Amino acid sequence: MVFFYEFSSLSHYNSPISSLYAPQFLNENFKIESFIRRDFNLINRYGFGISYKYIGFFWYALNIEEEFINTISFGMNILNIGSNVVYQYPNKANFGIGFNRTFLNFNICTYTLIGKFSYVCFFSEYKNAFLGFDIYLEKNFSADYRFFVSYKINESSSIQLSSSTNISGFSIGYKYNFFIFNYFYHSYLGDSFGFRLIYEK
Hints:
Blueprint: H1 18-21, E1 31-39, E2 43-52, E3 55-64, E4 67-78, E5 81-89, E6 93-103, E7 106-113, E8 117-126, E9 129-138, E10 143-152, E11 157-164, E12 169-176, E13 179-186, E14 190-200
């Protein structure tokens, strides 16, 4: 899966996009998120999400040359069990379900989008650091291991790094207040950049 950055549960931990990939992480805070990204002068991505009181909505658009794919998700989290309905135009709707449990300072979570993919993720937060990994399974049972680490520099800023064993590439992000800038590198597709805005209250 080339575009593993969008499919990492950890890289979108606790943000509105969770309603699409990880509804078990939706929480009671009010959040709005939008992003735009252009990959390798070939692919355009757009997204908008909103979440509040364990309910989230997210719209994601992927434009590749003449093809335009829209994905809409509605998700909810009840007692750390998340479920969502995902509709990808022009295909039929899919149903997903996942859970998250905390043991001391260690978390384990799972999620499956029926007939598409599944993952198991492990992560931990300690002081200013957040780190973990996903074991991502495609429907053909091929496995991909994805790593993510975030370090909070101060109350306003943090840095993030994610990578995957499935391809030779990585992502570096810098967050300042509600603004996030990402740099993506792929071994044969090259560089790309993305911008995200997240408001939380």
